[in-house]
Amino acid sequence: MDLSETQELTKEHTIDPSENFLYHQKSHISPLHQNHSSNSFLLIVLEPFQWFHMLCKELNTSFVLGVVLVYGVSQGFAGSFFRVVTDYYWKDVQRVQPSAVQLFIGLYYIPWLMKPIWGLLTDVFPIGGYQRRPYFIIAGVLGIVSSLTVAVTAKLSVIMALLSLIGITAGVAIADVMIDACTARNSIEKPELAPDMQSLCMLCSSVGALIGYSTSGMSVHHLGAKGSLGVLAIPAILLVVLGFFIYELRCNRPSEKKTLEKVKGATSSMYTTMKCPHVWKPTLYMYLSLALSISTSEGQFYWFTDPKAGPAFKQEVVGVIYAIGALASIVGVLIYHKLLKDYPFRNLLFCAQLLYGISGMLDLVFVLRWNLKLGIPDYFFVVSEECVLRIITRIRWMPMMVLNTKLCPVGIEGTFFALLMCIDSLGGLSSKWGGGLVLHVLHVTRTDFSNLWLALLLRNLLRLSTLGLIFLIPKGNQSDVLVPTNLLRKREAVITEEEGLQLMPMDEKLEP
């Protein structure tokens, strides 16, 4: 996968780093061999590895490793595994209504809404002289305790089960803050690599999701929903390990006065930045695009597994369907990285949102069973639908993530990126609760799905209505700098003197 070509990189490198290996390989191959199909296949196979090597060289190996562990294992694998297992847990163990599950899932977003708080804690409240390592460990321990509590406790109440599941998501959210801050920092320092970093993050997430979905159905079948939740202790253990071996400089404990000044400075800078039209307009669009796309996933899940009204998919089948969807997500990442990362934000997001609304109509066709009238089997149709939806979702989400990194000013990029992701999470919570309200009003229950098609139609119309807000998105390219570097009055007052998590070479210091 090639880097976006920029003048700056052209000046620094005669040959693009991602193509350096291929260049030397080609220079030692005769024209006859260059035309040989086996060599061409080898070059294609090696290209992703060279791209990965280039990222390690340009962004530092520890950053790439952190992305793999947090995005790939903690978010990708654990997140997908968590989704399937908890659906069966609420349905078969706690036996609650789909509208109630939508409410509970909305509460999972609470730790993600608190990301600015986690960001401030890690930035200005070091523990034992370390700003990052202890919080990785705390995140891992929280995940371990929460997952084992719900897995081994007999007859756990709904409230305690909900708190335990929120604890699992809190561990993931805290660890995610570290990597997000580093991604935002690197996007500012190397804006031409911002799309590549998001490609790396989404690729790791998609591969992890593929593994998680592939194993979730079998796990529920053999271990049950409760036992399967205990598996989530494994990713949490890896976060603890990451906290012990990640390189970090030990800093002096700041005085209370200095800590207070940092908190006030960061808060004031975030307020100043958010008032900028170049920031609040796209932020508003991203929130509304997420919130207006109300979620009806739990109503659909109950219908999928119902033996009378729906197709009655088994646990293994559900896991396989989601796994194939995760594989399609990887295709979406590749399509974005190879074809779409150089398109302007507004044009790309408009087309992606339009396709997102149109693809939602496939759910309507499936629930109304029109696919059977067309002679298309349920399994084939739902797999095709899942693949289309996942590809479009990735193409829609990745430029949003790139845009989020572009909106962060230098100096408070970690905390401000956490704020932007908090707003996105608020959009997701609004989507879940809005969908739960619609399911409740339309009386979609564990056994009554007669109005599910109406909820899907309303959801799709709301998705399409977001197109009227596309003017809030800037017209700039994805490699452009959107926020002026002189936006903040006192950059030095906000930048942490010692960068906590060292994601650059150890002999290299961050710019003051």
Automatic annotation (TrEMBL):
GO cellular component, one term: membrane
Matches recorded under InterPro entries: BT1, FBT, MFS_trans_sf
SUPFAM superfamilies: MFS general substrate transporter (SSF103473)
Leader sequence segment: none
Pfam families xref list: BT1
Topology with respect to the bilayer: Multi-pass membrane protein
Keywords: Membrane, Transmembrane, Transmembrane helix, Transport
Superkingdom field: Eukaryota
Entry annotated with the keyword Glycosyltransferase: no
Cellular location(s): Membrane
Membrane-spanning intervals of the chain: 63-84, 96-114, 135-152, 158-179, 200-221, 227-247, 284-305, 317-336, 348-370
Family: Belongs to the major facilitator superfamily. Folate-biopterin transporter (TC 2.A.71) family.
Protein name as catalogued: Folate-biopterin transporter 6
Source organism per UniProt: Protea cynaroides
